[in-house]
Design a protein that fits this description.
Elements lengths: L4 H6 L2 H10 L8 H18 L6 H11 L20 H20 L3 H17 L8 H9 L4 H21 L3 H25 L4 H8 L2 H11 L6 H18 L8 H18 L1
Helix pairs in contact: 2-4, 2-5, 2-9, 5-6, 5-8, 5-9, 8-9, 9-10, 9-11, 9-13, 11-12, 12-13
Keywords: Signal
């Protein structure tokens, strides 16, 4: 089955959004890295047709809110042994991907290596022969001190994972991975917003996740005859209901509390 470029771009939405929600930029990054990162962000904007925060803008928001790394917020790596079915492995590959992005952004070196390892384990169990390779592990270890290179390397690995799934007619699995990343990215952002004294900027980030969710649900709709996809769509339905009430970048306190409640419930049912 031939997959067009736009479909491939869309399938990378959730992980890229998770990376952008928790990643930061560096004005002095190498020109090649800047160009490639810019290309990926442009692909995201082209598909979703709405402005998203750049890496630099997100770190500015984090600094303004005074947020620090929240210990224990991510899915414990010890949970990886629980995931036996393809559905659970695919969803949690996406979840661990967002956790990997979060750990990398805050330069939590051991956590970065831990989440890289469990992601690699799930990729191997899913028989995905792209993305997480021995070369990737070596490159990550070599760039632990270079946050920009590390983020770019990890983003590329997940992009290649999605590409492999789509090109090998495993679109249902790719959607589960994408959904897992989106869910964890929103979950992490709600937790940061909840603990921040000034969460105005984080509220805007959450509001801007409405379009990716609608796009994700749109992509899942033609595949709802697949039980695993239908089950996840049903889990996301309450989240979609909350977002249907959100207009622009404004989220009321009541809407935020409801969003945090439903995304936490969905996330807990998956990890």
């Amino acid at each position: 089955m031939k997959i067009n470029t736009n479909t491939l771009k869309v399938l990378s939405i959730a992980f890229l959004s998770a990376m952008m929600m928790v990643s930061c930029g560096n004005k002095q990054a190498k020109q090649a890295e800047e160009l490639e990162t810019e290309t990926k962000e442009q692909a995201f904007e082209e598909v979703t047709n709405y402005p998203i925060p750049t890496s630099f803008e997100v770190i500015q928001m984090i600094n303004k809110a005074g947020a620090s790394f929240i210990i224990g917020i991510c899915n414990p790596v010890d949970n990886v042994g629980k995931y036996i079915t393809e559905k659970d492995m695919a969803i949690n590959l996406g979840i661990y991907g967002a956790d990997l992005a979060y750990s990398t952004t805050y330069q939590m070196k051991q956590e970065t290596l831990n989440y890289l390892k469990v992601s690699k384990d799930l990729v191997e169990k899913l028989n995905i022969s792209a993305g997480f390779t021995p070369e990737l592990a070596k490159k990550v270890e070599e760039n632990l001190e270079n946050k920009d290179s590390l983020i770019l390397t990890i983003t590329n690995s997940f992009y290649e994972t999605y590409r492999y799934l789509v090109e090998n007619e495993k679109e249902s699995l790719s959607l589960l991975v994408v959904a897992g990343s989106w869910i964890e990215g929103v979950y992490i952002t709600t937790q940061i917003a909840y603990t921040s004294r000034d969460n105005t900027e984080f509220i805007k980030i959450l509001a801007n996740q409405k379009a990716p969710l609608m796009k994700l649900m749109e992509l899942m709709e033609p595949r709802k005859d697949v039980p695993e996809v239908k089950e996840l769509m049903d889990k996301l339905a309450p989240v979609q209901e909350v977002y249907n009430q959100i207009e622009g970048e404004n989220i009321t306190n009541e809407q935020f509390e409801k969003l945090m409640e439903v995304i936490t419930s969905v996330r807990e049912s998956l990890v």
